[in-house]
């Protein structure tokens, strides 16, 4: 099945994950987002999608079947959260610390489109570097497990046309801004560098009601600077190539700074766009022969540029257990202060509204395409190469062992013959060596 055909199967699903240090508001974010969802068929139910997909894959043999990370890690990802809550219960019940990851599944309607939305809440990072790194291993194992499910499905002779897309299309990474030094902590850098190899990363500054405008600006700049310094690739709403296109459309010219930015490390989206837009390797050609230039209308590019300028996105979660009303007496998801009411979805207060529409609507398909076309393909290639390498090593070992046993067999024969007073003819010696040798694939 071609990539374009396969990706049609991915249309109705969107799987998002939240990750970051403990207490930064990840669960609160999910609950605030939940408050804006239009549920399709009543409450969504708790489903461990990973194991559901595993069961749906039917009769494949254990050797091709991926192993759920939950089977190997205690309280790890892919497990049901503390027992009985369903997705709506998770999004509306008492706010608790997340101890086990939770996959909340909602069947929603967004801009007249039906979406199966899964929000994966992960336990917050906490503790020593070793504990944090082990926790990061679990998240990576979870992400890779979703790829393994796709890989197992793709290998089948008869693929299940109803197989669900379990891949995580974006990870919203919550950055702690309580430290005195603005920017990314050493642990954030380590985690982001690793997660960035497996998933679209979207940086988030939560609890933004505790930040002034000047602090927010300084923080955003510091985070982006640290990310660039440490080769952390955040999802690009507007890739350098599209930024250039936007400038061309606006009739502007690049100044030195913009040129420097544009020449920064290319990201996953770049390749996709380059491919889709028919852009060649030569920049000269790329400028002259951009056939699909009209595909990106100025409004879309401007929206992309706006989103790119917002990242890292500030978010504010609603206040729990309090009914908040705005000045007009209309109920809002917000927080009330002595000096006024803060509305989580007011763009003057934070970036949550823009982030929501990018995830659920404007960039949903792009996130999925990059997940499938870049992250999954990269994982698949790595895995197949590793397997070929290990098979090759195994084969070499077998060959050595076999050569060793043949040599010892020959020595034994020789000893026996000599003991019996016999002699070893060249023909016999050749035969005995020949019968013990391995026929390699190169000899077939
Ligand atoms: N002021 C303020 N407080 C917030 C905001 N979001 C969450 N909180 C509070 O922060 C605390 C932690 O929120 P959680 O949503 O449980 O944080 P978490 O990241 O899921 O924490 P773990 O489960 O430990 O990973 C709670 O007391 C929330 O009420 C926010 O936007 N502003």
What does this structure look like?
By secondary structure, the protein is an alpha/beta fold. The chain has two domains: 3-388, P-loop containing nucleotide triphosphate hydrolases (Rossmann fold, 3-Layer(aba) Sandwich), CATH 3.40.50.300; 396-438. Helices cover 47% and strands 11% of the residues. Strands 2-3-1-4-5-6 form a six-stranded mixed β-sheet, sandwiched between helices. Strands 7-8 form a two-stranded antiparallel sheet. Helix 14 packs across helix 15. The relative contact order is 0.11. Bound molecules: guanosine-5'-triphosphate (GTP). Guanosine-5'-triphosphate binds at residues 22-28, 95, 97-98, 123-124, 206-207, 209-210, 316-317, 320. Belongs to the TRAFAC class TrmE-Era-EngA-EngB-Septin-like GTPase superfamily. Septin GTPase family.
Describe the structure using short key phrases:
2 domains; about 45% helix; binds guanosine-5'-triphosphate; alpha/beta; about 10% strand; globular; GTP-binding; 16 helices; Septin-type G domain-containing protein; Rossmann fold
């Amino acid at each position: 099945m071609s990539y374009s055909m396969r990706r049609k199967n991915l249309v109705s699903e969107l799987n998002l994950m939240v990750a970051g240090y403990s207490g930064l508001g990840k669960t609160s974010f999910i609950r605030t987002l939940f408050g804006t969802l239009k549920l399709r068929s009543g409450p969504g139910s708790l489903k461990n999608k990973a194991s559901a997909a595993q069961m749906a894959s039917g009769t494949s043999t254990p050797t091709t079947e991926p192993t759920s990370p939950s089977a190997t890690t205690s309280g790890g990802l892919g497990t049901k959260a503390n027992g009985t809550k369903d997705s709506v219960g998770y999004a509306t019940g008492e706010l608790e610390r997340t101890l086990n990851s939770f996959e909340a599944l909602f069947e929603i309607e967004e801009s007249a489109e039906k979406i199966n939305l899964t929000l994966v809440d992960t336990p917050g990072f906490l503790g020593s570097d070793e504990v944090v790194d082990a926790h990061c291993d679990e998240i990576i194992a979870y992400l890779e497990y979703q790829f393994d499910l796709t890989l197992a499905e793709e290998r089948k002779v008869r693929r299940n046309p109803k197989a669900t897309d379990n891949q995580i299309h974006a990870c919203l990474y919550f950055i702690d801004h309580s430290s005195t030094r603005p920017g990314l902590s050493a642990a954030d850098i380590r985690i982001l560098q690793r997660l960035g190899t497996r998933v679209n990363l979207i940086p988030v500054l939560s609890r933004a009601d505790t930040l002034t405008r000047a602090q927010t600006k300084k923080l955003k700049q510091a985070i982006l600077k640290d990310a660039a310094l440490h080769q952390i690739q955040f999802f690009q709403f507007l890739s350098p190539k599209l930024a250039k296109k936007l400038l061309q459309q606006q009739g502007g010219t690049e100044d030195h700074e913009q040129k420097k930015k544009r020449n920064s490390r290319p990201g996953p989206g770049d390749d996709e766009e380059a491919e889709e837009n028919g852009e060649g390797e030569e920049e000269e050609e790329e400028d002259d022969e951009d056939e699909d230039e009209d595909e990106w209308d100025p409004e879309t590019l401007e929206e992309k540029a706006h989103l790119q300028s917002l990242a890292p996105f500030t978010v504010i979660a609603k206040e729990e257990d309090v009914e908040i009303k705005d000045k007009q007496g209309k109920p809002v998801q917000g927080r009330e202060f002595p000096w006024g009411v803060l509305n989580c979805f007011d763009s003057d207060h934070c970036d949550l509204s823009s982030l929501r529409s990018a995830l659920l609507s404007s960039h949903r398909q792009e996130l999925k395409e990059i997940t499938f076309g870049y992250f999954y393909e990269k994982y698949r290639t790595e895995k197949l190469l590793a397997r070929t390498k290990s098979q090759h090593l195994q084969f070499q070992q077998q060959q050595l062992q076999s050569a060793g046993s043949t040599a010892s067999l020959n020595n034994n024969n020789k000893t026996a013959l000599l003991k019996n007073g016999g002699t070893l003819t060249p023909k016999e010696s050749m035969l005995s060596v020949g019968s013990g040798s391995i026929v390699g694939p190169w000899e077939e």
